[in-house]
Specification:
The protein has 542 residues and is mostly helical. The protein is elongated and about 175 Å long. It has 28 helices and no strands.
Length: 542
């Protein structure tokens, strides 16, 4: 019986197929080993990273806790000592930046800004992308009025954190201080774009007001109120605006709304006081100025305006003198305060003090006509006539229509007997104020005192042409006619004076009585004399 046996044959390992398979297996094993090694390395790296992260977290927490404890220390020396130790022990650059920032804050608290700036710069070197140090350094530069350095540092903070609103606000303010108003407005617009809230619109409204675009400013203030109905300073600024355009009622309404909101800018009291002065509501103006000065004691104009009210309204020159002096202390170039204080000294006959004040006012504003007039009058009161005339001449060079200079000089010319110059200056006054009856009347009176009756009549003709009811002009012209023995004209003028003023001046009746008596009309003369007695008796009883 034949059995077929199955026999496995040995493969031919040198067969090309088996060679390829073998190589493939080798490469596969090598690849697996390589990837396994890489995986192990990544795993090791990941574990290390996680461990480092945990370590860093603990480190940051530990340093943060230490910084918190350091901030709570009462004495700056202790704080600085702890911070110095912490800096020496720390190698992490980000942590070093944080520590330097805290140490800078301590230096700020003890008023060592130079050291604080050095620490902020160290923080920047250790962590150049941290905006906090740039911003804090900029605040110190701004406080020291190093505007360019402050702006550069604010811009660096913005570069690191483009939505840094506080940095934009400060840039906006610095550009305004530098009078780069339109650049300031650009930043105000950016602030509105980044965060269109009530404060942003208010800030832009202020910027628009600075470039005299009040239409847009008002729109922004109104938008501010729309977003926050209790935004008091928006009401204040609207009040200021409407006060400027002479809409006083609306201005007062906005000021009242600001008061009702509370927490308003105290400038409201000052601006409302100015409005009350314009409205001649002096008691209310004084009340606001008192409130403002109690809260803000370093604004010279507030003292000046209160001094003006004390002097001009309440005739309290003592209080006015104190306020003008305080105004000058705060604003040494406050020329109008020197002028007004000088007027008080004049009233007290303290001429040397008055002249000192006018000298200072003129040194600040040498082209202001009225200061020369005031000093001229002080010289005139001291009988230093040449100095007075020099000042009046200078005042008229600066302002040929300065009436007071002519009035004062006329008084001086009268005292010195310069008749032609008196008439000349009266004529200049007539050119300046052709409808002012008092000028023609004063000039006629001077002529009358000098027995120039024809010239008296000439000026009084002009006076009654301007004011046909000016009784004194008719009376004086009647007297001039009487001296010229034109009794009919004199009688007509005395009668006209009585027609214009029948009940308050006995002189008109007595003068007409003389004419009647001279003309032989005794009864009429007695009637006028009796009427004059009645008027004088009535006035005496009153």
């Amino acid at each position: 019986m034949n059995h077929n046996l199955l026999v496995w044959s040995t493969p031919d390992l040198w067969n090309p197929i088996w060679i390829v398979i073998g190589i493939g297996i080798v490469f596969a094993v090598i690849t697996l080993v390589i990837y396994a090694m890489r995986g192990i390395r990544k795993l090791i790296r990941f574990v290390r990273i996680q461990l480092q992260a945990v370590h860093n977290l603990h480190l940051y927490q530990d340093v943060g806790q230490q910084l918190d404890r350091i901030r709570k220390l009462e004495h700056s020396d202790d704080q600085l000592a702890r911070l110095n130790t912490l800096i020496a022990q720390t190698t992490d650059r980000h942590l070093l930046a944080r520590i330097h920032i805290v140490r800078a804050e301590v230096y700020e608290q003890i008023h060592q800004p130079a050291m604080a700036i050095k620490d902020y710069q160290q923080a920047i070197r250790n962590h150049p992308e941290n905006d906090i140090a740039y911003f804090a350094r900029a605040l110190l530069y701004e406080k020291d009025q190093k505007w360019d350095l402050a702006l550069r540092s604010y811009h660096q903070a913005i570069d690191r954190y483009p939505a840094h609103l506080d940095a934009y606000y400060h840039c906006c303010q610095i550009y305004f201080v530098q009078k780069d108003i339109y650049r300031s407005l650009e930043y105000a617009n950016t602030i509105v774009e980044l965060q269109p809230d009530a404060h942003a619109y208010y800030n832009r409204g202020v910027a628009y007001a600075r470039v005299d675009d009040y239409t847009q400013a008002v729109a922004d203030y109104e938008k501010t109120i729309e977003l926050d109905a209790n935004y008091a300073n928006a009401y204040v600024n609207l009040g200021i605006y409407y006060g400027k355009i002479d809409n006083k009622d609306l201005a007062l309404q906005y000021y009242q709304l600001a008061v009702e909101c509370g927490d308003y800018n105290i400038d409201m009291h000052y601006n409302r006081a100015l409005l009350y002065i314009d409205l001649q509501e002096y008691a209310l103006a004084l009340e606001d100025l008192n409130i403002y000065i109690a809260l803000e004691q370093h604004y010279g104009d507030a003292y000046y305006n209160r001094g003006w009210i004390y002097n001009e309204v309440y005739e309290r020159s003592d209080l006015a003198l104190e306020d003008y002096t305080r105004s000058i202390e705060l604003q040494p170039n406050q020329a109008r305060a020197y002028n007004n204080r000088g007027l008080i000294y004049l009233g007290r006959q303290q001429y040397d003090l008055a002249i000192q004040d006018y000298n200072i006012a003129i040194s600040f504003y040498p082209d202001t006509s009225k200061y020369y007039v005031s000093r001229g009058w002080a010289y005139q009161c001291q009988q230093e006539d040449e100095l007075a005339l020099h000042d009046y001449a200078r005042a008229l060079e600066l302002d040929e229509r300065n009436s007071q200079a002519y009035i004062n000089r006329i008084a001086l010319y009268k005292a010195k007997g310069y008749r032609s110059w008196v008439i000349h200056d009266y004529h200049r006054l007539m050119e300046i104020e052709p409808e002012a009856v008092w000028i023609y009347f004063d000039c006629s009176w001077y002529c009358l005192e000098n027995n120039d009756y024809e010239l008296t009549i000439q000026y009084l003709d002009q006076a009654v042409t301007i004011d046909p009811t000016h009784a004194l002009s008719y009376n004086n012209r009647g007297y001039a006619y009487q001296r010229l023995k034109d009794y009919d004209a004199a009688l007509a003028d005395y009668s006209k004076a009585i027609e214009c003023d029948p009940d308050t001046n006995a002189l008109y009746y007595r003068n007409r009585s003389y004419i009647y008596d001279f003309q032989g009309e005794t009864d009429k003369a007695k009637q006028d004399w009796h009427k004059a007695d009645q008027i004088e008796q009535h006035l005496h009883l009153v």
